């Protein structure tokens, strides 16, 4: 009986120890559950923050794209306005004429419509007043197109190549001339002389400034005897 009592006491001690361990484990489990719930809540918060950040990122990307589009539009508008301003600075011509000229004795000259009599072609015009154009020398290019449709061009006589402003196309010009503009209408003439005879037929004179066509005129040199 004493042995059984001793065993019973031992069992009670072991049971108490197990209960104590179980209580401790329950306490740890409660703490772990609390930690898990807290971490889960933190994870949910992080997911919410992540979703919000992704939404903000997408909105910022759209805003950036919109700003880039507005920037490009403004840049295009600026370029267009600058082009219009530059185009507005280009001079305008009136009373454009193209005439065959014959050199006479004592330095005199006379107009002629006969190809064989023509020593040079003279293109004259009035350059009109332009309120937004700056005063100073204006560089003018003359293109003379012969009856065959080709440009009269002699490099050694000053012919060259220029670029059309609106299309970036390269074109030949016959000769160039400078005109001094001082804020008022001025008359100006450009002469073109060549060693070869001028062929009979229709000619076209074109005047360009800064790559823009600002004046044109046709003329005809006819066949005929002196």
Outline of the structure:
With 226 residues, the chain is an alpha+beta fold.
What does this protein structure show overall?
The chain is of the alpha+beta class and 226 residues long. It is 39% helix and 33% strand. The protein is built from 1 helix and 10 strands; from the N terminus they run H-E-E-E-E-E-E-E-E-E-E. The chain has one helix at 2-89, and strands spanning 93-103, 109-112, 120-127, 136-145, 160-163, 170-173, 175-181, 186-193, 201-209, 212-221. The strands form 3 sheets. Strands 2-1-3-8 form a 4-stranded antiparallel sheet, with no helix packed on it. The protein is rod-shaped. It starts with a helix and ends in a 5-residue tail after the last strand.
Distance between the termini: 164 Å
List unreliable stretches of 5+ residues. Answer: none
Strand adjacency order, main sheet:
2-1-3-8
Class derived from helix and strand content: alpha+beta
Give, in order, the helices and strands: HEEEEEEEEEE
Supply the number of helical segments: 1
Percent of residues in β-strands:
25-35%
Question: Which geometry do the CA atoms define?
Answer: rod-shaped
């Amino acid at each position: 009986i004493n042995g059984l009592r001793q065993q019973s006491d031992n069992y009670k001690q072991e049971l108490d120890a197990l209960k104590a361990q179980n209580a401790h484990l329950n306490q740890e489990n409660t703490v772990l559950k609390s930690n898990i719930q807290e971490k889960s809540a933190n994870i949910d918060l992080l997911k919410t923050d992540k979703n919000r950040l992704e939404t903000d990122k997408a909105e910022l990307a759209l805003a950036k794209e919109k700003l880039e589009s507005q920037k490009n539009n403004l840049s295009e508008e600026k370029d267009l306005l600058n082009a219009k301003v530059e185009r507005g600075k280009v001079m305008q011509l009136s009373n454009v004429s193209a005439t065959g000229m014959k050199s006479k004795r004592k330095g005199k000259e006379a107009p002629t419509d006969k190809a064989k009599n023509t020593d040079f072609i003279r293109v004259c015009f009035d350059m009109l007043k332009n309120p937004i154009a700056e005063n100073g020398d204006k560089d003018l290019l003359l293109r003379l197109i012969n009856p065959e449709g080709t440009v009269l061009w002699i490099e050694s006589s000053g012919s060259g190549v220029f670029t059309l402003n609106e299309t970036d196309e390269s074109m030949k010009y016959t000769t160039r001339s400078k005109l001094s503009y001082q804020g008022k209408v001025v008359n100006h003439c450009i002469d073109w002389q060549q060693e070869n005879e001028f062929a009979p037929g229709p000619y076209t004179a074109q005047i360009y400034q800064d790559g823009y066509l600002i004046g044109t005129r046709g003329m005809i040199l006819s066949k005929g005897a002196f």
